[in-house]
Amino acid sequence: MTAPSFSSHLGSSSYRTPPNTWLDFNATIVPQIYLFLDRVVIDRGDGISTRLDEAEVPLVALSFRYPTGVVRASDPAERFFFAKDGVFLATNRDFDAEARARYLLERFGAVDLQCVEHYAIPPNTDADYLLRIDGNAHSHCAFFKSALPELQKLGFAVEVDPDYPYQVFKGDPPWYAVLGTKDEKPDWFGLELGVEVEGSRVSLLPALLSILDRDEGTGSLPDLVDDPARSYALRANETHHVMVSGERMRAMLRVVVELYKDQSGRALGGCDARSAATVSRMVDVFEAEGQSLDLEDPKGWRKRGGALMARPGETCPPNGLRATLRPYQQDGLAWLQHLRECGVGGVLADDMGLGKTLQTIAHLAKESDRVQCPSLVVAPTSLVENWQREFQKFAPHKHVLLLHGVRRHDYWEDVPAADVVVTSYPLVVRDQERLAEYPFHILVLDEAHAIKNARSQVHQAVRTIDAKHRICLTGTPVENHLGELWSLFDFLNKGLLGDEHQFSRWYRKPIERDGDAERLDGLQQLVQPYILRRVKKDVAKELPPKTVLAVPLELQGKQRDLYEHIRVAAHAQVRQVIKKKGVRGSTIPILDALMKLRQVCCDPRLVPMQAARFVRESTKYAYLMQFLNAQLEQGHRILVFSQFTQMLSLISDGLQRASVNHLLLTGGSRNRQSLVDAFERGDSDVFLISLKAGGTGLNLTSADTVIHYDHWWNPQAQAQASDRAYRIGQKKPVFVYNLYAAGSVEERMLQLQRRKQYLADSILGTGSAGPSFDAEELDALFAPLPG
Predict the structure, then answer these.
(1) Beta partners for 58?
(2) 3-class state of residue 589 by DSSP
């Protein structure tokens, strides 16, 4: 683009002194002030990359009209001559008035071109000022919207080039939105949003999408809209923009994020009842600002979205249910029924021990009274028979079919006649083709964090099952990172959170990496209708108190020396690997190094190293044996959890030598339920349990003491293990003891546990996000022991 010329608008500024005639030097005339706005495309000279709209720099020519004609601010003439009634007159130039005009213009952000260093302004540009060196489309349009009217009130005459790209529509044009259409296509965006100008609709979605594409998911909404109190410009066409408040801009961007179409042109779910809830919140922002929004909803999505957000109505328990539902369980049943009526899936995420199984049985029994199609429950292998027992206990009139074991193939023909079919996660993968032959009414995933890896075979298998409604049961919808939440919703309501890449860009990375509270709040609001979470302290008032105690233990002697020896070597090795592959590419070496340190803290006999062979000291093991003896003398019944089955074997050997009767449950135990029954009968007062085998499906309310011998990253798994004892039916106060080596990797892991707990609580609406695992935290984990 060539440099603009202002000469045709301003006239000549060259004057000659008139002949020697009588002159009057006393007149002084205040000039008329003129502004002319145009733009020029430039390259910045400081190497800073710019967006296209910032490269179109707005320029201003300032001129003053006297009776003799128009002069520029840079014209050196001090007086002007003109003829009047046959007499030549002279008038002094009003430099004070011109200076005031320049001062006013500069107060509104104009910068004298002589002061500009970093812009390669073409030398033939016929202008005087640049609008804001640090400006962008928002500030340029704000000048047009607010500053120009103020200058006009002060007497400035303004002219704008028709192609000036930062013009703003007069007034505040009426807004409209169309939420889906009757002929909506699968790849259609699902929302139209814009303004009406001179009887025509102008869509502003391209402008909103360009903001997101340009940002590429690297910034937060506060970064994109950093000041809710200021106004932002949305490009409507080549020359005109619409100015909106920061709050309105954030509300619109949040809607677009949910419905975002990526650069390949694929829609991420379109517009429906769930996204209509976010659209409703956007409408509320418009109304709060006194700006109407003409919303067209041909499919009734907003109404359906409102129904989803509404409080569930009352519902009666199913006929024949042999249980009296507690008030919160009755609410849980009503919520499950409400989701079914709205046609969406959800996560029942109650605390362990609050009766998720009973609420689900009541829901399935009620649904089997309505339809002829069976429902399907998928559970961990260890819990399959437990589901059968629970149905026999609470709904014995329902036909429950177990597809379990090598003889399960004999019962496939009975599937259509069953009320409920129960199988396991491993068998879903093996029997995927057979299951695909049958339609199911409701598909329930028990301990649904089993599908948290979206690339796993089990995740892919359960997604292929034909079911009208889907439910996840898990007290830990987020254990380690937000990708697990996406995996659940990919199964429950595909498209709600976009595809995995989109979710990572717009939610996971900004929240986990940057602690973006704005996007965390947006994600929490988005998933809130689909997650029901109640904690014991709020709904189970009859439960006795639970006390959680941390027990720090100092490593001594050879055990301490061994820890430091392994720590120094492991830290050096980890840093070397991270230098080559980065933190993400070094997961296995990092976990291996941390594992060795954890083993030293538990007992040197766990460490598979030559240096550990002759170290027999274990502070934690010695403490546990003394503590167990004291607790048993006081009549307590105890659960001991460890992630290391070898550690449980060492403890079992020590208890045998001390003639202490005990039970041991690991992943290799085949008599799981009989061991539980034996403990509940009182056959033994100590139950050693591996965290993996005992974290789910156990009811051990006869115990009143829980000991966690060691810890790992996941606080949810540890809490689940504690809740084997602290659940409905517990009559005694429960004490939970967390043993850890003071100053070691175990203590620092407990700190990381609390941070991960913040993230989980945030999604469930009970907390705020914490920082993610990074290289700096790795250095803290490998820090030396104090003292």
Answers:
(1) 39
(2) helix
* DSSP strand pairing (175-179 vs 191-197): antiparallel
Residue with token string 């607010």: 146
Whether the Cβ atoms of residue 421 and residue 446 lie closer than 8 Å to each other? no
List the one residue out of 714, 720, 284 whose CA is nearest residue 484.
Answer: 714
Tell me which of 106-115, 187-196, 243-252 is least confident: 187-196
Q: Are 78 and 84 in contact (CB under 8 A)?
A: no
Range 140-162 burial, b when 16+ CB lie within 10 A, else e: bbbbbbebbeebeeeebeeeebe
Question: Rounded CA gap, 286 and 251, in Å?
Answer: 9
Give CA–CA dist 234/251, Å, rounded: 14
pLDDT in tens, 314-329: 899 999 999 999 999 9
Give ∠ CA 550-553-556 in degrees, rounded to 5.
Answer: 170
- Indicate the pairing of strand 87-92 with strand 167-168: unpaired
Question: 604, exposed or middle or buried, with CB in 10 Å at 0-12, 13-18, 19+?
Answer: buried
Give the separation between CA 773 and CA 752, rounded to whole angstroms: 8
Residue 615: helix, strand or coil by DSSP? Answer: coil
338, 313 in Cβ contact below 8 A?
yes
Q: Does the CA dihedral 175-179-184-188 come out positive or negative?
A: positive
Between CA 699 and CA 708, with CA 705 as vertex, the angle to 5 degrees is 90
**Alpha-carbon gap, residue 11 to 159, rounded angstroms:** 14
In this structure, what are the phi and psi dihedrals at residue 548, rounded to the nearest 5 degrees?
Answer: -105, 125
Q: Which residues contact 562 (CB under 8 A, 6 or more apart)?
A: 600, 604, 607, 611, 612, 615
What does the pLDDT look like over 478-516, one tens digit per residue? 877 889 999 999 999 887 887 888 788 878 888 888 777
Alpha carbons 561 and 217: distance in angstroms, whole number: 47
Taking only Cα atoms into account, the Rg of the chain, rounded to an integer number of angstroms, comes to: 36
> Measured between alpha carbons, how far is 503 from 523 in angstroms, rounded to an integer?
10
